[in-house]
């Protein structure tokens, strides 16, 4: 028995420090479990409070790593510096020696664990790193994850219960005061805490096997029970797009529609967003999914609606030869969501073009084909010799206004699927350029609304891009980059079921979060956009002979077949209305709520994934029948 503070040598290397923040005395001991294949070991701590009066105390478990320039990873929450210095979106950023909490820039950060896709904190220095892993909650309350850097040394820590510092992030540029949960120890009270830890090699990608192993350990205690099967979910999503988001005048998929149709009269129109992006949050990708569904299920009204949306977008290109960014009912076609005047965003344009090419597989249309070729040709003409396809493009002149970030990734798949040697060569140049983002474990710039923040959507774009290159060329390099991109993407995917209050909507409905993705460190809510690369993750598993990535794809499809309104009135919505946001932590809204707006992309991406899985099932059955 050793009296606090306690330093415990890790049999794998390094040591773990255990202390209690608050008045003592405490008595502590620790014992190690056997090493797992990754080197991870469980450390079981026994802590007894020996004081005579009740006292508040926070248990802190930490590791230190020499690091002049540390690289952090809290899955789904913190990546390296987390916010590039040039990013206009304000959210927590690490900077050595900094203490500017009002700007959300600091050398030390603490967070509640439910903000993380896996309750783990990792750091790498010049020679190696370390990790600490825990559960979302313990007997002492919600767990905390913390990082800090001082005098050339990086510190990672678990806190029981959590502390958020130097500020609390709630989704806006206005910081909230720091928070500290409290646990009051009673005289003689004893608790056991179990944490997992191990040293890490210098390769930052060492997180991948560790998180894969951790997910397998958590899975038995984190069931996911879909409300509908895949066929039923496809029908619900298609009806949502057609019934609620499609407006035949002039032929658009409205981006958001309110659940409550009586909130302001006029059947809710005042709360519906009278706008449509050409890709991303609305537009061609989800119209293409509706088209495929309508053709498969013999729903001519769905086919007609999808075709009208694509017709409308293709009929009016920008003066520079690409699609526009966004249509507004009051003002017509305009730029992307950018602070830069007249800017069109490469990811949005690329996604629209990619799914237009996929729509052409199901229905040939000369106007669609001409629009696709125009977009492809002008983007190839603007490509830099090093392969960069640009981020922001001037709608009128075509001038590239920004080359920052990796938003051009989506164009790689469009170029590959367009066919033709010149397009493929451009795709390969782009693949080589953007590879550095994947290899650095820091991909950023995809969504228009968070500027240069790293996001799960950057990961989806990279997986789609490098799988397209692998399919087109068969080259092993592209397959390896697809695997690395998938591993990075899956850091955003929740590996456990967050515990919700029993009276919150997500608690009442028993929403299971395993398989859902954190949108980004900036937008800390769960979303379903990861369904966009369902087919690519399954294909990656097939190419590698490793079922893991397909399992993670099906896991996400199972997750978002929960909370689906199959009938008017279900989950306080109408049939087919599908939310964008599930609040798994206190950010934007209190934990346990969900956003009562239906988003076109939320219905569209679910429909897309369902159709992709159903198409694979049909192909498999046809193959068996032919044998």
From TrEMBL:
Domain of life: Bacteria
Xref: InterPro entries: 6-hairpin_glycosidase_sf (IPR008928)
GO biological process: carbohydrate metabolic process
Protein name stated in the entry: Uncharacterized protein
């Amino acid at each position: 028995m050793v009296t606090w503070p306690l330093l415990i040598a890790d049999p794998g290397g390094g040591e773990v420090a255990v202390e209690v923040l608050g008045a003592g005395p405490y008595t502590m001991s620790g014992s190690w479990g056997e090493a797992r294949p990754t080197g991870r070991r469980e450390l079981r701590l026994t802590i007894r409070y020996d004081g005579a009066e009740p006292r508040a105390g926070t248990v802190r478990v930490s590791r230190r790593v020499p690091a002049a320039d540390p690289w952090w990873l809290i899955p789904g929450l913190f990546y390296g510096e987390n916010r590039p210095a040039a990013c206009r979106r304000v959210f927590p950023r690490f900077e050595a020696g900094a203490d500017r909490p009002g700007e959300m820039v600091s050398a030390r950060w603490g967070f509640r664990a439910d903000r993380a896709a896996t309750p783990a904190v990792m750091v790498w220095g010049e020679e190696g790193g370390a990790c600490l892993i825990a559960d979302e909650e313990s007997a002492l309350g919600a767990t905390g994850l913390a990082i800090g850097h001082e005098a050339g040394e990086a510190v990672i820590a678990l806190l029981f219960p959590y502390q958020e510092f130097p500020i609390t992030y709630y989704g806006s540029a206005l910081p909230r005061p720091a928070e500290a949960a409290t646990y009051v120890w009673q005289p003689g009270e004893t608790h056991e805490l179990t944490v997992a830890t191990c040293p890490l090699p210098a390769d930052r990608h060492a997180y991948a096997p560790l998180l894969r192993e951790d997910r397998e350990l958590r899975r038995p205690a984190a069931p996911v029970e879909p409300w509908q099967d895949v066929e039923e979910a496809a029908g619900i999503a298609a009806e949502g797009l057609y019934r609620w988001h499609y407006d035949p005048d002039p032929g658009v998929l409205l981006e958001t529609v309110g659940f409550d149709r009586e909130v302001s009269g006029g059947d809710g129109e005042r709360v519906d967003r009278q706008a449509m992006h050409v890709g991303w949050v609305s537009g061609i990708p989800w119209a293409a999914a509706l088209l495929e569904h309508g053709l498969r299920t013999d729903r001519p009204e769905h086919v007609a609606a999808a075709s009208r949306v694509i017709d409308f977008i293709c009929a009016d290109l920008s003066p520079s030869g690409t699609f526009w960014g966004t249509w507004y009912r009051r003002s017509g076609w305009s730029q992307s969501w950018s602070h830069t005047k007249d800017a069109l965003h490469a990811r949005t344009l690329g996604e629209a073009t990619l799914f237009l090419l996929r729509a052409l597989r199901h229905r040939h249309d000369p106007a669609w084909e001409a629009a696709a070729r125009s977009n492809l040709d002008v983007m190839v003409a603007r490509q830099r010799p090093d392969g960069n396809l640009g981020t922001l493009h001037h709608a009128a002149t075509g001038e590239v206004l920004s080359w920052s970030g990796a938003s051009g990734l989506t164009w790689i798949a469009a170029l590959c699927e367009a066919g033709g040697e010149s397009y493929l060569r451009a795709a390969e140049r782009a693949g080589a350029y953007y590879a550095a983002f994947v290899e650095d474990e820091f991909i950023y710039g995809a969504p228009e609304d968070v500027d240069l923040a790293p996001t799960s959507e950057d990961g989806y774009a990279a997986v789609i891009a490098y799988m397209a290159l692998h399919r087109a060329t068969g080259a092993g390099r592209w397959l390896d980059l697809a695997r690395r991109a998938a591993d990075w993407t899956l850091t955003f995917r929740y590996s456990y079921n967050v515990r919700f209050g029993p009276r919150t909507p997500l608690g009442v409905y028993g929403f299971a979060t395993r398989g859902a993705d954190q949108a980004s460190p900036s937008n800390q809510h769960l979303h379903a956009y990861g369904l966009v690369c369902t087919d690519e993750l399954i294909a990656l598993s097939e190419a590698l002979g490793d079922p893991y990535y397909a399992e993670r794809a099906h896991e996400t499809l199972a997750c978002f077949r929960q909370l689906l309104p199959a009938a008017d009135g279900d989950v306080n919505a109408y049939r087919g209305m599908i939310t964008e946001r599930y609040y798994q932590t206190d950010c934007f809204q209190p934990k346990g709520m969900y956003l009562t707006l239906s988003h076109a992309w939320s219905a569209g991406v679910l429909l897309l994934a369902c159709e992709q899985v159903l198409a694979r099932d049909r192909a498999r059955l046809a193959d068996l029948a032919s044998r």
